[in-house]
Automatic annotation (TrEMBL):
Protein's recorded name: Gamma-butyrobetaine dioxygenase
Molecular function GO labels: 2-oxoglutarate-dependent dioxygenase activity; metal ion binding
SUPFAM superfamilies: Clavaminate synthase-like
Domain TauD/TfdA-like residue range list: 122-360
Pfam families xref list: GBBH-like_N, TauD
Domain of life the protein comes from: Bacteria
Keywords: Dioxygenase, Iron, Metal-binding, Oxidoreductase
Family note: Belongs to the gamma-BBH/TMLD family.
Matching InterPro entries: AlphaKG_dependent_hydroxylases, GBBH-like_N, GBBH-like_N_sf, TauD-like_sf, TauD/TfdA-like
TM stretches of this protein: none
Signal peptide: none
Length: 382
């Protein structure tokens, strides 16, 4: 396909045709900073070898032309020429209409859900350990829906480590590398009782908060104790749909969280319940009534409305229409995004037993493993 390219603003930018119907503008400074040549980027790891100070402040483009699918660009005053593949430029284009997305939007990799479209993805642990394609699909479910379950694992203490090893590492906290979720005498946390628990995110008092949580079932013969998951992103979007002002209050003002449940531990954080990026993308939910401290960062004139929004958020969390529930079987492990999903459980009786082991991990490790698994497929498609 013949492609067009032309310079603008005395070479401070160019417009390149990347498809039959789409052209994009790129600034000279951006192109030079992102040059793909071996003098700018390490061939071994792709890391940048120069700083911005190494690029002349008066950088501009003197020539640009297509050779097949490669755009050759020459810069002055360096006299340096580099090439950019058309597909690379299309994947990194930043020239788009200012869409002004409504606060609470999510990217294409995330599908917010409620009970109408929440699906539980399950796969045997042995399959995940031996089949890269199955692992890729399973990790993709965690990225997209925020959770997935492994099944048919051993029912021995510490088996949880085998699940973490699929994608990353354990993040140790004051609860230890692994923690037990079962009834205790004089528990340090209400999670270690048979009480039902409202939907919540874990460790909101920690900064940074653990971004993944895993719960592995070793025993579950007690009556009750069903596990519940709620997509906090979808709950936040529903709040925005019915009360935009309330959404703005929960995302603008900081709540406070605190944990002082054991000797030598005093954890505190000051963060919004609904965390957004500067352009309104949903980044994280922090909701935990048990660990909420006194809210002191909301002005007097907004506190009444803030609490109304807080109450409504909790009502949406409690609404079965926004949840999926399941009863874990021994040998099953759920992995979920602790910065997005809230988890809960129904109460359970003293008859029988319910023993889960849990741990925390980090989402970046899971997403890194997923990207690496997908990379060979992307290369094969090119």
């Amino acid at each position: 396909m013949p492609r067009n390219v032309h310079l603008s603003d005395d070479g401070l930018s160019l417009t390149a045709q990347l498809s039959d119907t789409q052209s994009y503008r790129f600034h000279a400074i951006w192109l030079r900073d992102n040059a793909l040549d071996a003098e700018t980027r390490s061939p071994g790891n792709g890391q940048r070898l120069i700083t911005l100070a190494d690029i002349p402040a008066d950088i501009h483009i003197t020539a640009a032309s297509w050779a097949g699918d490669q755009l050759k660009v020459t810069f002055a005053p360096e006299g340096k020429s580099v090439t950019f593949p058309a597909n690379w430029l299309a994947a990194h284009a930043y020239d788009s209409p200012d869409a002004r997305l409504a606060p609470g939007w999510t990217g294409p990799a995330i599908t917010p859900w409620d009970s109408s479209n929440g699906t539980v993805t399950r796969a045997p642990l042995a399959t995940l350990q031996s089949d890269a394609e199955a692992l890729c699909t399973w990790l993709g479910a965690v990225e997209n829906h925020g959770f997935a379950l492994s099944t048919d694992g051993p029912t021995t203490s510490g088996a949880l480590r085998d699940v973490v090893a699929l994608f990353g590492y354990i993040r140790e906290t004051n609860y230890g590398p692994l923690f037990e979720v079962r009834t205790e005498v004089n528990p340090t946390n209400l999670a270690f009782t048979g009480l039902g628990l409202q939907g919540h995110t874990d460790n909101p008092y920690r900064d940074p908060v653990p971004s993944l949580q895993l719960l592995y079932c070793l025993e579950n013969s007690a009556t009750g104790g069903e596990s519940i998951l709620i997509d906090g992103f979808r709950v936040a979007q529903k709040l925005h749909e019915e009360d935009p002002h309330g959404f703005d209050l929960l995302s603008h003002y900081c709540a406070r969280f605190e944990y002082v449940g054991s000797d030598g531990v005093c954890l505190r954080s000051r963060v919004p319940m609904i965390e957004l990026s500067p352009d309104g993308e949903l980044r994280a939910i922090r909701f935990n009534n048990r660990s909420a401290a006194a809210i002191t960062d909301v002005p007097f004139d907004h506190m009444q409305a803030y609490y109304a929004a807080y109450r409504r958020f909790g009502e949406l969390v409690d609404d079965p229409a926004n949840a999926v529930s399941y009863k874990m079987a021994p040998g099953e492990c759920v992995v979920f995004d602790n910065m997005r999903l809230l988890h809960a459980r129904t109460g359970y009786s003293g008859a029988g037993s319910r023993w889960l082991q849990g741990c925390y991990s980090d989402r970046d490790g899971l997403l890194s493993t997923l990207a690496a698994l997908r990379a060979p497929k992307a290369e094969a498609a090119e």
